[in-house]
Fold this sequence. Notes:
- This protein is α/β, with parallel strands linked by helices and 247 residues long.
- It has eight helices and 13 strands.
- The protein has a domain at 8-171: Ribonuclease Z/Hydroxyacylglutathione hydrolase-like (Metallo-beta-lactamase, Chain A).
- It has helices spanning 8-11, 58-62, 78-81, 97-101, 105-108, 110-113, 199-210, 227-240, and strands at residues 13-18, 21-25, 37-41, 46-49, 70-72, 90-92, 141-142, 148-150, 155-160, 169-173, 178-182, 216-219, 225-226.
- The longest helix has 14 residues, at 227-240.
- It is globular and about 45 Å long.
Amino acid sequence: MPEPPVADSDxxxxxxxxxxxxxxxxPGYAPDMRCNIYLIQGRDRDLVIDTGLGLGSLTGFLAGxxxxxxxxxxxxxxxxxxxxxxxxxxxxxxxxxxIIAQPTPETTYSDRLLKQExxxxxxxxxxxVAEWSAKPAPATSxxxxxxxxxxxxxxxVVLHTPGHSWGSICLWDEKxxxxxxxxxxxxxELFDFLPCSHVPTYVQSLRRLRELPVHTAFPGHGPLxxxxxxxxxxxxxxxxxxxxxxx
Length: 247
């Protein structure tokens, strides 16, 4: 379907949520479903984590705020990859690289999860979720466990945390105690029921993350979490799934 242009200022909102960290979201999409897009401004370069639905020009919106940013995709679900094709550098875990290269509603789960009624307003007249799909955005590089991302004045290590999906990753800033945890941990129902999900693996990933001295968690959905809130989310999930996986 043809996509009429959407004014950059119409579709996105941005707010600074920590020093040098900006959260972008899409207020026309349901609060519990919209992706948290993060812009992290560094001394030497900037980093963007995830891209939302792609129903407006994310790079156009960030122009003047982000300097040729590196894009890290936490995983390949529809609500995180929509604007990935706009970025010159796109990194993702190899387990999901094929999906962003040739995304379909089935492989990104928009066919299951993207609903017309979840929009408080449409990005353009006549927009129909049944006719929408993310554009191909082949990875320019693959990233996995232990990779380092250096912005000059802060650095992250990539943690492979499968369970929500096989290629899910988090970014850990040990110096500041900041964890960008995407859809692995957030306040709300953790999705572990998709075909790409695996509960025992999810449990292992969460047990690992719980041991980190997280000060602030920056999730893929919902509000930021303190370290205490972050561990509480994990503890609640582990207690709920204790009958599904035994140590």
